[in-house]
Amino acid sequence: MEKKTLGRRSFLRFCAGAASAAFVASCAPKPAPESASEPAAPVKKTEAPAPAKTAIDLKVMVWTIADRMWMETAAEEFGDQNGDVNIIVDKVPYGDALKKTMTGLATGSLQDVFYAPVRWGKYLAYKGTCLWLDDYVKTKDPSLDDYYEWAIDGASFEGKLYGLPHEMNPGAYACCYYNKDLLAEAGVPEPTPDWTVEDFPEMAAKVQDRDKKIYGTTWIPGRFYAYSSLARSFGGRLITKDGKKWTFSTDPKSVEAARWVYDLRNKWDAGADREEMEGLSFTAGRVGFNISNIQSSGSVITGVGDKFDLGITLAPSGKTGLHGYYAFVNNMCVYGKTKHAQEAYDCVMHMTSPEVAMNAFVEQTHPSGRKSVWAAADEKGAHPIWKMVGDWMATEKAEGDMPMPYNLRFEEVVDKWSNVHHKLWYGDVSFQEGVDLIQRECATIVDLPRD
Length: 451
Prior knowledge:
This protein has about 450 residues and is of the alpha+beta class. The protein has 2 domains: about 55-170 and about 325-395, Periplasmic binding protein-like II (D-Maltodextrin-Binding Protein, domain 2); about 175-325 and about 405-445, Periplasmic binding protein-like II (D-Maltodextrin-Binding Protein, domain 2, 3-Layer(aba) Sandwich). It has helices at about 10-25, 70-80, 95-105, 120-125, 135-140, 150-155, 180-185, 200-205, 225-235, 250-265, 275, 295-305, 340-350, 355-365, 370-375, 385-395, 410-425, 430-445, and strands at about 55-65, 85-90, 115, 155, 160, 165-170, 175-180, 215, 285-290, 310-315, 330-335. The model is unreliable at about 1-40 (pLDDT under 50).
């Protein structure tokens, strides 16, 4: 049994009480001798005060990256606000997080609170790593109604909450950063938020000038889930909604999207080739259009500085104006075997609260999963692209779920795609050969059972 000690404040109160009692007793008149016929009055025993509650240690994993320093601050704030909780911060880089989480799970030493992106969060939930939070949110509501639908989807597995979102962004095919100076030199008008995939290739091709080492675009879908956004813009899907079938080459709209990417370099000559891509940075001023995520806006703006006139708008929509996206959700979770479940949940609730989310956005342009944060972007002085993206996500009819295989082998599909996709986009093989290659290689992973 753990030995409990008397806290300092309780000890001082105990000493003060004892001294006062002794003083009063010494000044009181002495009682008259009791007669033999009268029984002595019972002596009342004074109970010592209960020992003070010993503070618990709560270990919290935080993401170590410049635009997520708020996580450590928020965890420590929770400890400051709860004197019976001693926060132990464990700084873990994103690249090490999955390995460290799996190691902690295997050894039973996982942090009480840890972060888990949807990429592997659903797998961890399936394996019983996470504490289910549904009963906790019924008792203490973390303002669930404030979250985007797809943020909650990214924090859920088979209808149950395994975490609370601290971030949601619409992915790598969300924004287009463009060099106004290069566009002006080429006589290309600036894109508007309603431009489409039909506009983009011709505009990028006009900017490109290989002799001057100026390129129309550097964009290729280097991650399969980045491609899924494009496929949805065309009205197709890369993987069925139930996650059981890989449809890259079997969904006609997905094939149409793949042809569009292939044609950027192999028909329009609108993008840098593989060798030219090496070390090529948009912020250096030699690229016309760079399609990327919104959370990079701060670093892009800083990186460009006064080198050239920067423009930012939405990535081109599909032919019908449809914007596809996937909700990249990052969650704070509670270890299923924690000895301090309520305190851990309270910590998660604080770290994902509207107040913390707003501060993280204002101070570090962190993209929250909360609608209220995105809605306040203009009021908080953010670049107009934040309101454009927030409005788009709030009204978009396209599905925004993460393309998750039913067998949860997300990371394996990431690796497989990374090994083969470039052969198609750079024209190393014919279009049909490239499409068949990606279909065959990735389907072998998606078709596997859960284990």
